[in-house]
Amino acid sequence: MTCAQTHLHKVELQTKDYKTDTKPFWCPGCGDHGVLTSVYRALSDLGVDPNYLVNISGIGCSSRLPYFVRSYKMHTLHGRAGPVATGVQLARPDLAILVNGGDGDGFSIGGGHMPHLARKNINMTYVLMDNRIYGLTKGQVSPTSQRQLKAYTTPYGGVEEPMDPVLYMLTYGASFVAQTLATNVKMTANLIKEGMEHRGFSFISVLSQCPTFNVVDDAKTFKGAVEELPEDHDVSNIDAAMHVVNMGHKNGRIPVGLLFREVRATLDERMADLVKQVGGSPDYDLRKIIDLARP
Amino acid sequence: MDKNDLIIRVAGEGGEGIISTGDLITQACARAGLEVYTFKTFPAEIKGGYAMYQSRASTEPLYNQGDTFDVLCAFNGQAYDLNRSRLLPGTAFVYDGPGGDFEPDVPPGVHAYPIPMTVTAKELGGIRVKNMIALGALSQLFNVPDLPLREIITAKFTKKGPEVVEKNLTAFARGRELAAALPKTDPWKIGVPTSKSDSIVLSGNDAIGLGAIIAGLDFFAAYPITPATEIARYVARHLPKRGGTLIQAEDEIASISQVVGAAFAGKKAMTATSGPGLALMGEMLGMSFMSETPSVVVNVQRGGPSTGLPTKHEQSDLFMAIHGSHGDCGRIVLSVEGVEDCIGLTVEAFNLAETYQCPVLLLSDGSLAFSTQTIPYPDPASYPVVERKRWDGKKEYQRYAITDDFISPMADPGTPGGMHIATGLEHDQAGEPNYTAANHEAMQAKRFRKLDAVVKNFAPVEVDGEGESDLGFIAWGSTIGVVREAVARLRAEGISVKGFYPKLMWPMPVEQYEAFGASCRKVVVAEVNYLGQLAHFIRAETTLRPESYTICGGLPFTPAMIVGKAKEML
Fold first, then answer.
1. Distance of CA B268 to CAs A207, A270, B386, Å?
2. Is B436 left (phi over 0), alpha (psi -120 to 50) or beta?
3. ipTM > 0.90, yes or no
4. What does the DSSP assignment read for A244-256?
5. CB < 8 Å from A in window 306-365 of B
6. Where are the beta strands (DSSP E) in B82-229?
7. CATH number at residue A247
8. Chain A nearest CA to B319, separation (Å)
9. pLDDT tens digits along A205-253
10. Residue A8 domain-assigned?
């Protein structure tokens, strides 16, 4: 395997050095403030050089996060942060890639991309900011909304079952899966940090309350439902990870912490190997390729 | 008599070796120094169905697939039935018989050559050599160069071992003997080239892949779709040699998104698709325009709408290529005439994308995609390759700075001080969201006015003919090659006619259209679609009021059709 290029260029910076002049536009009490604080902390703990950091998002309240982080960044289309980030990462494996987005962005409109980010093991950190509702469009049910949630387009209560992003990502083959709570900045910052250090696709689901539109899943409810993983949880055991999530569904608990981690080759590493295998180089004589078309 | 321009059509059941027979004829002719131009149709299904491969060979340059065949080689009854109406007096007809699945009722005046292909193949130990017997017969009867054929057959089967090579060469020789035993009654023979130029033979799709690699392609995002997939096949094979990579995405939305991501990261990136895929890319093309991130998208058009005629020829995506995205969304649209253009204009597509930081669409079409043509050996050094304007590191960086030419230098990630946001939101010069009236008007003007220079600096329009004329034909894409030949034939008959062949479809080179219109008494736009899409844009953007001549039967025009139209109008 080709030796991994570093994707974390380091500098010594303070938390404040990652802040931009743009102030967050989120409502007071929104969980996204906690996620942003955690991102600042994770970046400064790691000492990521912002010149080599690309923060990418889709559309939604949480997708505004890159505006507040000093870095190169892309604010893309609804659901498309993942594939855009894939392009950036494969083009420049030396960059650190941080993706932020909401539950609708990632698991409804962008849901078709998630399996492929995971199974291809694209080297990026995907921070899902799950408020279980569409906030920017003023409160419609999302794929993670509790059933019977009364919202903008469900005046009599929702009629669909919610999905669990973490369970999906474990199934899709993500090499790093964690869950945390926006109000727990310490845990969230640590998991983001670990995720960014991980070479491969790291997925961190953050339960991030929407005090304005989601009356069911508020900060207090989230806090009451979470349960830290047992100390002897084996992060290398995919069955154990799935079991603990499934058990949580049965008894109404949300496991938080690092659920699963494995080290395996990333797509950029495999592509570098492929280029090496064919002896590829930008100096390869074009005429040798053209000559193959001689009759 | 040598006919210095011979068209041989091989037809039969898909899977019987029709395509490889046609390929061998084409390769052998090209190796002997002849010019070739091929045309294929095949079913949308993998096995079975009617397949056809037509090779046109000449000692003179060729621009299209021709009117109809001089020689038909039918492997089965269906091939005969489908082509019977074109078996005109004087044509030659080689068929499987006796012992084939049909007994032709040969039309009067047709030179028929029964070759027992199936029976002989079985005698020689297997039906799989049926096409070699046909090839031998064609080679004997019409002077398809014998030595190059043997060389190519040998090379083709060498990997499978000397026995397989021998078996195929034996069948080929037997086909020649069978044909030699028949009296030759027709006058057709492929001409012998007097000189041999340095040339290559490529399909339209492969040539686009080659053009991209010459342009400095770093990253290709693919999603399979007929008739564009061969571009990805070519790139997947050759790009890694130059250190680049290809990713197969989960859908076309992902592939264009990856292209935009890779281009933001400072690389040259592209994708290739057909109409259904381009329809899915519309939103991200808007982001490419809005965020001024270069993207190159090849669209190999096929019959539409919806799933349409997936393997057939049509030129019906011009509306979508030019305006397919929400909002006022700019882009540059090029279209290729033939294989040579597929190289040169693909390089140009990258140069334009890098220069103007916008989406650049390159339109090809179903018949060109699979058409193989002889072209002069392309010297890679002869193609100018342009890199994007990058920030010089002086003064404070503003990603969307309004400059004299409205082009704002870019900064690759990793450039100290170059941090910025690429966003689909309306933004100010620094990239910060800004929805004020004044800002939106100023920034839209910036994004569009930079494109004003495109027509000034790059407007490849060829005008065929000089001075005043009774009739002017306008054509785009592979229809140009058909019109070229029709115009030459009409002139040879003393008819005053001109041709106008645009390669830059958008922005439109309006002045050049106007000048052409002013020099012709009547103007006709010939294109393979129902609505007359280019004619529509000409009426909208210029003072010309052309007549629209359209067909949409899944096949290209023939020169004879254009000649007929001209005579009808004069």
1. 38, 20, 11
2. beta
3. yes
4. HHHHHHHHT-EEE
5. none
6. 92-96, 111-115, 199-203, 219-222
7. 3.40.50.970
8. 23
9. 999 999 999 999 999 999 999 999 999 999 999 999 999 999 999 999 9
10. no
Whether residue B241 and residue A284 make contact (CB cut-off 8 A), yes or no, is yes
CB–CB of A66 and B421 under 8 A? yes
Interface test with A, best of B419, B432, B434, B435 (most A CBs within 10 A): B419
pTM for this prediction: 0.96
Which CA distances in Å does A23 have to A33, A67, B134, B255? 11, 9, 76, 33
| Superfamily of domain covering B6-180 | Pyruvate-ferredoxin oxidoreductase, PFOR, domain III (3.40.920.10)
Whether chain B has a CB inside 8 Å of the CB on A293: the answer is yes
Predicted pLDDT at A11: 87
pLDDT in tens, A147-166: 999 999 999 999 999 999 99
Give pLDDT, residue A54. 98
Least Cα distance to A252 among A228, A281, A282, A227 occurs for A227
Comparing C-alpha atoms, which of B54, B51, B40, B44 is closest to residue B8?
Answer: B54
Q: Could you give the CA distance from residue B318 to residue B110 in angstroms, rounded to a whole number?
A: 42
Which residue, B485, B480, B487, is CA-closest to B460?
B480
Using alpha carbons, list the distances in angstroms from residue B38 to A26, B32, B194, B341, B566.
62, 16, 22, 16, 26
Residue A258 sits in which domain range?
A: 15-291
State the Cα angle at A183 between A177 and A186, rounded to 5°: 65
Count of structural domains, chain A = 1
pLDDT digits (tens, 9 = 90+) for A40-95: 999 999 999 999 999 999 999 999 999 999 999 999 999 999 999 999 999 999 99
Q: How many residues does chain B have?
A: 570
Check if B236 contacts A (Cβ < 8 Å): no
Interatomic CA distance for residues B233 and B225, integer angstroms: 12
Q: Report chain A residues whose CB lies below 8 A from the CB of B214.
A: 286
CB contact under 8 A, B374 and A85: no
Residue B436, min C-alpha distance to chain A (Å): 17
pLDDT at position B1: 53
Quick check: B263 contacting A, CB < 8 Å? yes
Instruction: Tell me the fold of B201-382.
Output: Rossmann fold (3.40.50)
> Measured between CB atoms, which of B201, B255, B420 is closest to A72?
B420
- Cα(B106)–Cα(B94) distance, rounded to whole angstroms? 11
In a domain, A241, yes or no: yes
Nearest to A84 by CA among A104, A102, A99: A99
The H or E element spanning position A61 is none
Q: Annotate A259-270 with DSSP letters as a single string.
A: EEE-----HHHH
Distance CA B568, CA B570 (A): 6
* Portions of chain B given CATH number 3.40.50.970: 201-382
Q: In this predicted model, what pLDDT tens digit does every residue of B336-373 receive, in sequence order?
A: 999 999 999 999 999 999 999 999 999 999 999 999 99
Q: How many residues does chain A have?
A: 295
Find, in chain B, the residue whose alpha carbon is nearest to that of A279: B241
In a domain, A166, yes or no: yes
Residue A73 pairs in a beta bridge with: A55, B421
The verdict on residue A122 lying in a domain is yes
pLDDT digits (tens, 9 = 90+) for B124-146: 989 999 999 999 999 999 999 99
Residues of chain B with pLDDT under 70: 1-2
| pLDDT for B196 | 78
Distance, CA of A251 to CA of A228 (rounded, Å): 14
- Indicate where chain B has its CATH 3.40.50.920 domain(s): 461-569
Give the class (CATH, top level) of B461-569: alpha beta
DSSP state letter for A214: -
Residue of chain A whose Cα is closest to the Cα of B284: A77
